[in-house]
Write a structure and sequence with these properties.
Layout lengths: L12 E5 L16 H12 L4 E3 L28 H6 L9 H4 L8 H21 L6 H10 L1 H16 L15 H7 L6 H27 L3 E6 L8 H5 L14 E5 L9 E2 L7 H6 L3 H11 L4 E4 L7 E6 L9 E4 L3 H10 L5 E3 L7 H10 L3 E4 L21 E4 L8 H7 L2 H11 L6 H11 L4 E5 H4 L26 H8 L1 H11 L3
Parallel strand pairs: 1-2, 1-12, 2-3, 3-6, 6-9, 10-11, 11-12
Antiparallel strand pairs: 4-5, 4-7, 7-8
Helix pairs in contact: 5-6, 6-8
């Protein structure tokens, strides 16, 4: 058999899935401040080796990290404003509006109103006093990320100029990055573009400090690359030639998946689809740039919707749901050959959930990437389920549940009696602490990597669910409280996790 392209999981380990927006803090949303370091301390003390998170891009309507304004940029909401206050870019009293926001969850509407004026003040103060940050580092960052940074800054400046509307509604002279440059529009928006570059520099510099701190605690970071990008994004606006667009420059089709476990109408994501032939002709330049950016942020990358690299579900533009569509051929192994050539030591995880075809399984084998198993999907059938622990293999990442699932406690509470009975008999438990039963099962598994949602470690029910696929709003808002981690330590939970991770060689 041909040697797989990439090395699989060679060492056992475990980690926690927590999106940074769920961290506690005073600014209405989690950030790259003290609380992020405290969370890293917890991971280390509990014997974990990884922090996994969702994509870190700038979110728009719906607040989903899987529908962002850029596949490259960072989310300014994650910038720690207390750090800016400590260096003089913000005054403490200017944070009063943010401190009044809910500390229990993210209220994205209220956050939008309170956050951006404060960050704009920081930019104005920087313009008046450039010494607040390292101009050398700022310029180096700008030069190093020129491929995506300038188009993104131009896109966001135009979006501000056109009152937040989607680029598909902008005048013809602004409908693409090339047209906006040629029309002279961008020359009038230089200050606004500078603000977006500044925000990205702040995001980058703070994230690098977090990553460096994680390294001192032997914690590695797992990021997430969604296969598709949002229709209203700098990517489609700046690189229309690599997408499947019609003669008017609008998406000719949209991404989704057919009816499945989550939805009887399928999932209509609405993302534009790629022109894979054009990408291949161009040497996959945009994708390789995307990987380069993400490897500068993370140690390991999870590829969301891996099956789309083999075949993807194409839905006609304007369709009301994803029931009617057709499977199209993806880029296949040639795409991963290009990644291997550019990043020979790349560490990747394939999100291979769902009904997989022989072609997807073959691609997984050829790449050598570890796939995923969700324990919540394992029960209710027979012993052949690949998600049941006795069928796990070493090159696999196991989760009790992921960000798209209910919490383990919520799942078990609402599961049919047939499923509950299977859980109790298979795990040999009474079922009165189902969340911890699944946590233990994941850590005990032969799978090389076990990842636990933070909500499960806190024994939370459905009210703490992070995302319900197909629900257009109200997702992504869960946060834990400042005192949570110290409570876990006092209760002995942190020590118990350390014991489990040590006992099972993680």
């Amino acid at each position: 058999m041909k040697t797989p392209l990439f090395n699989g999981l060679e060492k056992r380990g475990s980690g926690v899935l927590l999106h940074p927006t769920s961290l506690p803090g005073i600014q209405g949303i989690g950030s790259f401040g003290h609380e992020a370091r405290t969370f890293i301390d917890f991971l280390s003390e509990a014997g974990f080796r990884y922090w996994q998170m969702c994509p870190l891009g700038p979110t728009g309507y719906g607040d989903s990290p899987y529908q962002t304004f850029s596949a490259f940029a960072g989310n300014p909401y994650l910038i720690d404003l207390k750090t800016l206050e400590s260096v003089g870019l913000i005054k403490w009293q200017e944070l009063e509006g943010l401190k009044k926001l809910s500390q229990d969850k993210v209220d994205f509407g209220a956050l939008y109103t309170a956050f951006w004026p404060v960050l704009r003040v920081a930019y104005e103060r920087y313009l008046a006093h450039p010494q607040y940050i390292s101009e050398t580092e700022h310029k180096a960052f700008e030069e190093r990320n020129a491929l995506w940074l300038h188009p993104y800054a131009a896109f966001m400046a135009c979006k501000e100029h056109f009152n937040g509307s989607a680029w598909t509604t902008w005048p013809k002279e602004a409908r693409t990055y090339t047209a906006a440059k040629a029309s002279g529009l961008l020359a009038t928006l230089e200050k606004s573009m500078g603000a977006w570059v500044f925000y990205e520099y702040l995001f980058w510099s703070q994230w690098q400090a977090i990553r460096a701190y994680a390294k001192t605690k032997n914690i590695e970071l797992i990021g997430d690359i969604p296969i598709f990008v949002a229709a209203d994004s700098a990517d489609v606006w700046a690189w229309p030639e690599i997408f499947n667009l019609d003669k008017q420059g609008l998406p000719a089709s949209q991404a989704g998946v057919p009816p499945d476990y989550f939805s009887e109408k399928g999932q209509l994501w609405g993302n534009p689809l790629y022109n894979w032939e054009a990408m291949k002709t161009g040497g996959y330049k945009w994708w390789l740039g995307r990987f380069e950016r993400n490897f500068a942020l993370f140690d390991v990358i999870r590829l969301d919707h891996f099956r789309g690299f083999d075949t993807y579900w194409e839905v006609p533009a304007g369709a009301p749901d994803a029931k009617k569509g057709k499977w199209q051929k993806g880029p296949g192994i040639a795409f991963f050959d290009a990644i291997k050539e550019k990043f020979p030591e790349a560490r990747l995880i394939a999100e291979d959930l769902g009904d997989l075809t022989p072609g997807v399984k073959q691609l997984l084998t050829e790449t050598g990437l570890p796939g995923m198993a969700i324990l919540q999907f394992a029960f209710g059938g027979d012993a052949s389920s690949s998600y049941l622990p006795h069928n796990h293999k070493q090159n696999l990442v196991v989760y009790p549940g992921s960000h798209d699932n209910d919490t383990s406690l919520g799942w078990y509470t609402h599961a049919p009696e047939k499923v509950k009975d299977h859980v109790r008999r298979y795990l040999g438990v009474a079922g009165n602490e189902s969340d911890w039963d699944l946590i233990r099962s994941a850590i005990e598994s032969t799978a090389g990597l076990a990842i636990i949602q933070m909500q499960d470690l806190l024994s939370l029910s459905s009210e703490a669910r992070m995302n319900l696929p197909g629900k257009p709003d109200g997702n992504w808002s869960w946060r834990y409280k400042t005192e949570t981690l110290s409570s876990l330590q006092k209760q002995g939970t942190t020590a118990y996790l350390k014991t489990l991770n040590t006992l099972y060689g993680r």
